[in-house]
Write a structure and sequence with these properties.
The structure holds 2 protein chains of 2 kinds.
Chain A: H1 4-7, E1 11-20, E2 23-33, E3 38-42, H2 49-57, E4 64-69, E5 72-73, E6 84-87, H3 99-109, H4 114-128, H5 143-156, E7 161-165, H6 173-190, E8 193-198, H7 201-207, E9 210-215, E10 218-223, H8 225-230, H9 235-240, E11 247-256, E12 259-263, E13 269-271, E14 282-287, E15 292-308, E16 313-319, E17 322-328, E18 339-344, E19 348-350
Parallel strand pairs in A: 3-8, 3-9, 6-7, 7-8
Antiparallel strand pairs in A: 1-2, 1-4, 4-5, 9-10, 11-12, 11-14, 12-13, 14-19, 15-16, 15-18, 16-17
Chain B: H1 2-5, H2 8-38, H3 54-60, H4 63-95, H5 101-108, H6 110-113, H7 116-126, H8 133-141, H9 154-182, H10 186-195, H11 199-227, H12 231-236, H13 248-258, H14 262-288, H15 291-294
The chains are: A alpha+beta, B mainly alpha.
Chain lengths: 358, 299
């Protein structure tokens, strides 16, 4: 993989949009992915992330805008000449070919010698621990092994860009965590620019250098995992990133002697960020479950259900009329119906109509 | 009685009985009777006596029987090859996104739904020595001067019957292969196109190998139907001219029913069985079983 160091590439999307007939599914997306970066496109199903990836791969026509791979506009370039490799959700292994033939297929088409095919396939197979499976057919492999073969096929091509289309969604939970780490390790080793599509925000958070949060064909926010977590740009990103997801409470800003606070419909008062101004404004207050502490100076809450997971405890409760989840490290044995006090140590304010962060 | 009705073995046997009786009565018995008749000198109205292989020895030396064997093989091979090629081509066309897709697919099935005897009568007109629309069109186009005698010349008759058989058989092949094509995941083609495969290479390396199991089954059936064809020939030519289009099935019928030589006719019919078995075994061992389909085991 030495020669790679020179050939890596940045990927730039400029005002890319996609329409199927009269319905537009991707609305002018701008994303700049640097050389060697691991970029994750994440969003709920139907948000256009897979379509975008397929446009980068050349499997889907670009209705407008420009896609650049390594400073070359590829809008009219067929997939095989884009110097990309793709890992599909269903792996797309050729069922009638052995693992070796699957991995060597692109070289076979390119007319490479048997000798060279063997060398390159063995390098990839060694990286992925597939050496003993080279003579098997895909059907004789487990899900995780098939996944590795699909990655092996991509590695063998030694492309400028790796594209992953929800590669882990067909695996069971345990294997998914394991493969997540493997893919990240692989990227650290090969440092090839990678674009990874998933609907799972945990995958996005754990793997990405850069996350692109998409919703309804638009990018909601682009940033590093922690930027998105610490500084969500809007309600959608705030609710999408983080698990369990952020609690949202509606109310109105009021000025008290202790400073600005939010008053909910039933009169409960919540602390707000210092930046809050504009008394009387309707707002949505966001607070992450892990930022709610059980403390005597907190807000009154009625316990509904307590779920201990061992490492931490999830407390589902009612604050005023709203459902709120708190995740605390210490172990509590609250009974359903018990009244407790929760203190939000970190809060975010959003505009209720536009969803924008205040 | 009640205890009997609760006995699983008895109930199983009772429920199986109707099907078993039907099979024995209408399948096993006629097959056995036919085979047995082939070893007798039975005539219409006279029960035969056992004559051993005498019928087969006589038929082996009989020029008409030999000709019918040649005709059957020629008919089967040529028609099957063309049906396969046309069917595959049609299936691939129908698998594309074409306007009025489902309508076209339904229309393709039409020759298959029309009763054979009816379509054969239509072909009889198309091939008629005086009223043939083909001859008429060719004459009008100025390509030929005299009407073609489609069913009057041995080779013309052979090819004409084959054409009619192809027309009738292509939809079956096309629809089955279309079903097969639709089981191939589109992502395989996408992966192949990223791997650098041109459309022709995608066909050769992805479509064809993945279609072989279906091809094996479809072509086995197609060969069996063609080899045992009867209706089309009987309506179009009755085996003529000069036995040039006699297939084993029509000859068997002619000898046994029209000619009254039940034993001889049965022997011709029985002689078809080895060919049919060979076709089945060929597809079973030669085409259908592939290691990649078997999965699971370590080999």
């Amino acid at each position: 993989m030495e020669r790679k160091q020179l050939a890596m590439a940045a990927v730039n999307l400029k005002g890319v949009f996609k329409s199927f007939g009269s319905t537009r599914v991707v609305h002018g997306v701008d994303i700049a992915i640097a050389d060697g970066e691991f970029c994750v496109l994440v969003g709920p199903s139907g948000c256009g992330k897979s379509t975008l990836l397929r446009m980068i791969a050349g499997l889907e026509e670009i209705s407008g805008g420009e896609i650049e791979i390594g400073a070359r506009v590829v809008n009219q370039v067929p997939p095989k000449e884009r110097d990309i490799a793709m890992v599909f959700q269903n792996y797309a292994l050729y069922p009638h070919m052995t693992v070796f033939d699957n991995m060597a297929f692109s070289m076979k088409l390119a007319g490479e010698s048997r000798q060279k095919m063997r060398e390159r396939v063995e390098v990839a197979a060694n990286i992925l621990g597939l050496m003993e499976y080279l003579d098997r057919y895909p059907r004789q492999l487990s899900g995780g092994q098939r996944q590795r073969v699909a990655m092996g096929r991509a590695i063998v091509r030694d492309p400028q860009v790796f594209l992953f289309d929800e590669p882990l969604s067909n695996l069971d939970a345990k294997l998914r965590v394991q493969m997540r780490t493997e893919i990240k390790e692989l990227h650290q080793r090969l440092t090839t620019t990678s674009i990874y599509v998933t609907h799972d925000q945990i995958e996005a958070m754990t793997m990405a250098d850069k996350i692109v949060v998409m919703n309804e064909g638009r990018t909601e926010q682009i940033g590093t995992p922690l930027e998105l977590y610490d500084n969500p740009a809007n309600l959608f990103v705030a609710g999408f990133i983080g698990s369990p997801s952020m609690n949202f409470l509606r109310g109105k800003l009021v000025k008290k002697e202790a400073g600005m606070q939010m008053q909910m419909a039933d009169g409960l008062l919540m602390p707000v960020p210092a930046s809050a101004s504009q008394e009387g404004r309707e707002v949505v207050l966001g607070v992450r479950p892990e930022h709610l502490l059980v403390r005597d100076d907190g807000v009154r809450a009625g316990v509904v259900v307590v779920e201990p997971t061992g490492a931490d405890t999830q407390i589902f409760c009612k604050v005023g009329g709203s459902d709120v989840v708190a995740v605390v490290r210490e172990r509590h044995e609250f009974k359903p119906g018990e009244a407790i006090r929760l203190y939000p140590e970190l809060t975010f304010l959003f505009d209720p109509s536009s969803g924008a962060r205040l | 009685m009640n205890r009997l009705l609760e006995n699983r073995n008895f109930l199983g046997f009772a429920f199986m009985l109707p099907a078993a009786v039907l099979l024995l009565l209408f399948l096993t018995y006629p097959l056995g009777l036919g085979t047995w008749l082939g070893f007798t000198d039975a005539k219409v109205g006279r029960a035969g006596v056992w004559v051993g292989l005498e019928n087969y020895i006589y038929l082996y030396g009989d020029a008409v029987t030999r000709l019918s064997l040649f005709n059957t093989l020629f008919y089967t091979v040529v028609a099957s090859v063309i049906k396969f090629a046309l069917g595959l081509w049609l299936a691939i066309l129908l698998n594309q996104n074409i306007p009025l897709k489902s309508f076209v697919r339904a229309a393709v099935l039409l020759p298959f739904i029309v009763p054979t005897a009816l379509s054969a009568i239509a072909f009889w007109w198309i091939y008629d020595a005086q009223f043939s629309i083909i001859s008429w069109a060719l004459v009008k186009l100025g390509w030929i001067d005299t009407y073609i005698d489609f069913l009057g010349q041995p080779w013309a008759a052979r090819l004409s019957t084959i054409a009619a058989n192809i027309w009738r058989g292509v939809p079956f092949v096309a629809i089955c292969l279309l079903a097969g094509l639709q089981t191939i995941s589109p992502s395989l083609y996408e992966a192949a196109s990223i791997d650098g495969a041109k459309p022709s290479q995608q066909f050769w390396y992805v479509t064809l190998p993945l279609l072989t199991p279906i091809i094996a089954v479809v072509m086995t059936f197609s060969v069996l139907f063609t080899f045992t064809d009867f209706q089309l020939i009987y309506v179009l030519t009755r085996g003529g001219p000069l036995n040039a289009t006699h297939l084993m099935a029509t000859l068997s019928f002619q000898r046994a029913i029209s000619g009254g030589a039940l034993g001889e006719g049965a022997a011709i019919a029985t002689a078809m069985i080895p060919f049919l078995l060979a076709a089945i075994l060929f597809s079973y061992f030669g085409l259908q079983r592939r290691a990649w389909q078997q999965g699971g085991s370590d080999k």
